[in-house]
Amino acid sequence: MGQIRSSTRFYNARHEARNVTPEHMQCLVGACPAIYETKQGNYLVVGKQVNPSDVGLAGKVGEGEVLVKVPRELIDAKQD
């Protein structure tokens, strides 16, 4: 499963998600916070999993959902 570079964006051929992480925050090696946009119009966010109780959000995260923490800049500077 490779990635194809098109302009300044990456398209994952298998999952049809493109990387919309700000270029200056993209990792070249290893894993780091990231945002991907799907062709279905959803975002996939990679971040550190957080326990909802630790941040006062107990009961706000449903079954099958997880709460993730990412740097604010990741979302504020997201590529369009």
Task: Quote the beta fraction.
Answer: 25-35%
Poorly predicted ranges: 1-8
- Please compute the radius of gyration using only Cα atoms: 14 Å
- Roughly how many Å apart are the termini? 24 Å
Strand order of the largest sheet: 1-2-3-4-5
Report the sheet with the most strands, covering strand number, pairing sense and barrel closure.
5 strands, antiparallel
Give the overall pLDDT as a whole number.
82
Shape: globular
What is the domain tally? 1
By DSSP (H or I, 4+ residues per run), the number of helices equals 1
* Helix/strand order, N-terminal first: EEEEEEEH
Structural class: mainly beta
- How many E strands? 7
**What is the percent of helical residues?**
under 10%
Could you walk me through the main structural features you see in this protein, from its secondary elements to its overall organization?
- The protein has one helix at 72-76; strands spanning 3-6, 9-12, 17-19, 34-38, 43-46, 48-50, 67-69.
- It has a 5-stranded antiparallel β-sheet, with no helix packed on it. The chain has a two-stranded antiparallel sheet with strand order 6-7.
- The radius of gyration is 14 Å and the shape is globular.
- It has one domain (3-76).
- The longest helix is centred in the last third of the chain and has 5 residues, at 72-76.
- It has 80 residues and is mainly β.
